Amino acid sequence: MLKKIRRKVKLVISKSFKKRSKPPKTPKAPTPSPSPSPSPPSPPPPLSPSPIMAQPQHHHHIPESSPFLFPKIESSVIPDPSPFFSPDLLTAPLPTNSFFQNFVLKHGDQPEYIHPYLIKSSSSSLSLSYPSQFLTSVFIYQIFNPDLTISASNKTDPDSERRHIVSSFSDLSVTLDLPSSNLRFFLVRGSPFLTCAVSGGTALSITTIHAILSFSPNNSRTKYTIKLNNGQTWLLYTSSAINLTHDISSITSDAYSGVIRIAILPDSNPRFESILDRFSSCYPISGKAELSKPFCLEYRWEKKGWGDLLMLAHPLHLRLLSADDEVAVLDDFKFNSIDGELVGVVGDSWKLKLDPVSITWNSIKGVKEEAFPEIVSSLCRDVEDLNSSNISTTSSYFYGKLIARAARLALIAEEVCFLDVIPVIRKFLKNTITPWLDGTFSGNGFLYEGKWGGLVTRQGSTDSGADFGFGVYNDHHFHLGYFLYAIAVLAKIDPAWGRKYRAQAYSLMADFMTLGRRSSSNYPRLRCFDLWKLHSWASGLTEFADGRNQESTSEAVNAYYSAALMGLAYGDTHLVATGSMLAAMEIKAAQTWWHVREGDKIYAEAEDFTRENRVVGVLWANKRDGGLWFAPPEWRECRLGIQVLPVLPITEVLFSDVRFARELVKWTLPALGREGVGEGWKGFLYAMEGIYDKEGALEKIRKLNGYDDGNSLTNLLWWIHSRGDEEEERFEGGKYCLFGHYCH
C-alpha cells in the first residue's frame, strides 16, 4: 500500500533531515423490523398555526445575485454558543458537527478525540489521555484516563467564569484558551505533541492519576522525561529553560512564559525518542484543507519554531498520499488509535489524491434490452400508485425518502426508454416538492436560524427530537440529500420549474455544502464533512461522551452524489466537482472504517470484533458500535440495509468490492430466520446478493411483498438487471472513468 510513497525515512535519524527531490517519473421480541431511520424516532408535537408559515412566501423579487434564505425563526431548542466562542467568531456561522463539538456544548467538559490523544477541558485545566481500548465482539471504545492534567498553579483571573474559550478553529485544528490561567492550547489533529503557549509569567501545575516513578531533565532544562507506574513514558519539551519539581503525582514550575510541548513515547520505546527530539522545535498552530484540484485534497499547516513538521497520518491518509508529494513517511514510527495505526509523516503540506468517481444519472453499465419489459411492467404499477394526497408523513426525513423514490422512477423510465410515465412523475414531484420550497407545506417546512447559522424545520424549531433532531443540526445531509436528489431529477425533466426554484434548491444544498469561510456566509463550512477523517458526522448539537457519530454512510454518499447531480441539472461544473469529490472521500472512508472484511487489519487489536462483524452499526469518534440507533446488533439485516440505502448508480462504487459483498451477504443471511424481519430490509440484502448472483437475487426479489419507503420493486429490478459480469475482485469507481487510459 505504501509503495507509492517513494520518500521514506529510516526509523533512527542521525543526521540533518532533508527532503529528497522528486524521483524521476517512469429485538429480541418477534416484532417487525422498524423502518430505516438515522436516529431514535420521536413523535412530532402538535402543530399550531405559525404566522411565518401561514401564507405562501414569494421570493421571486430577490435578485439572483443575493443568496436566498428561508424565513428566519428564533429556535427555542438551540443551545447558546456565546459562552464558548470568542466574540469575533460569533459574527459568522458556527460549526455544528465538528471534531471539537463537545468543547462548546453544555459545560464543555466532555472529551474529544484529537488524534492521537483524548482531550478534556474542565475546571480551567486541560487533561490528555493516550487511550487504551476496551474490546468486545459488539463494540470497541477508547478509555479516557487523565494521564496528565495541565493548569495554572494559581488562577490569574479568579473571577473568570469561563472554563475555556475557542479563540480560533479550522479544518484541522482548534485553539483553546483558558482565560483564568494564561494558557493557550493549539490542538492540531494528528500532532504527536500537545502544544501549549504560556504567557504572563505563569506558574504551572501538571498532575497525573498515576504515580511518577522517575522524573529527569536534560542539562539545559528544556526537556524532561516522565515515567509513570502505568508503563507510560511522557516527554516534555520547552522553548526555554524551566524549573520543574515533582512529588508522587504532581509537577510544578516557577513562573514561566514560553511554549511547552508534551508527547507520549509510543510503547515507551526509546528508539522513537530521537524522532520526537528532532521534531520537537517545530509546532503547528493551525491547519487548513483545500479542495485545490479535482479529486485532490491538500493539507497546509501554519507552523512556528524551526525545523520540519512531524504529523501523524491515519490509514486512509496513507493510501491517498500522493507519490509526487514532498513528504517523508516514517514507516515504523507509529501511535495506536481506534482508527488504525497512526504513522509519522514529515512535511509542511500533504496532497491526497483519489480515483475519480463517475457521477451518472443512470446505471454505469446499463440495462440489457431483454430486461426492459419486466422493469417497464413494474414501473407502470409503481407510477400508478403515485398520489401526493396520500402522503401522510410530515417528517423531513421520511418525506424526503418518498420524493426521492419517485424521482428514481423517472430516471429508470429514461434508462429503459419508456417515457410515457414521465408526465405523471413530473406532476407528482412538482406537487410534493414545491410546497417545501415556497413555504406552503402545512405540516412542516424549512426555516433559517441565525445563532449557529443554518436550516431547521418548523417542527424542529420547538422540539429537539422532532425530525430526528434536524432542529439541532442532526442528520442534515441525510434529509437534505433526499430532497436534493428529487430536486435534481425534477430540474432535469422540467427545466422551467428548475429555473424558478433554483435559489431555494441552492439554499438547501448550501446548508451542508458551503465551502467558503467568509463571515458573510449564511452557513458554516461543510457542516457535516470532516476533512481530516474524510467522512461525515451526523450528530449535531448534542453532547456525547464518545464525540460525533454517523450511522448511515450510504445516505451520506447520497447527499454529495445528489448535490453533484443537481450541479449536472443546472450546468454547475463547480458543484459537480465538489459533490463528486466529497462522495469519493465518503466512499473511501466507508470502505475503510465501516466495512469490516474478514482478516481486516484496521481493527487489528479487536480480533473478536473483526470476526463477528461485517459492518459497523454506528461509528463514533471514540467508539465502534455493532448496534444501531433503532436496532440491536443481532438485527444484521438492518445493519446491512442502513449502509446500503438508497440503492442508486453510485451504490455500485460504494460496494465495488465483490468479495466483500459476498462476505456481507453470508454474514447477514442467518438473521432472516428471526421472526418479524421486515420485507424492506430483505430487499437491500438481495440487492447486495445480486452483485455476485444475479439470478438467485432476482428470484428472491420477485417474491418480496413489501419494500422500504425509499425503495421500490422497479428500483430493485433495475439494480439487478444493470449488474455486469464482473470477476470477484475489488475495483474502484475510477474504473469507469475510461478517459484515464488516455491521460498518461
TrEMBL record:
Mind listing the UniProt keywords for this protein, alphabetically?
A: Carbohydrate metabolism, Cell wall biogenesis/degradation, Glycosidase, Hydrolase, Polysaccharide degradation
Uppermost EC category: hydrolase
Catalytic function, reaction form: Hydrolysis of (1->3)-beta-D-glucosidic linkages in (1->3)-beta-D-glucans
Origin: domain of life: Eukaryota
List where Basic residues composition bias occurs: 1-25
Which biological process annotations from GO are given for this protein? Answer: cell wall organization; polysaccharide catabolic process
Task: Give the Enzyme Commission number.
Answer: 3.2.1.39
Extract the InterPro entries matched here: Endo-beta-glucanase (IPR005200), GH81_C (IPR040720), GH81_N (IPR040451)
Residue ranges occupied by any Glycosyl hydrolase family 81 C-terminal domain in the UniProt entry: 367-720
Q: Where is the composition biased (Pro residues)?
A: 26-49
Could you tell me which residues belong to the region Disordered? 1-65
Record-annotated Glycosyl hydrolase family 81 N-terminal domain positions? 91-361
* Molecular-function GO terms, alphabetical: endo-1,3(4)-beta-glucanase activity; glucan endo-1,3-beta-D-glucosidase activity
Family membership noted in the UniProt record: Belongs to the glycosyl hydrolase 81 family.
- Which protein is depicted? glucan endo-1,3-beta-D-glucosidase
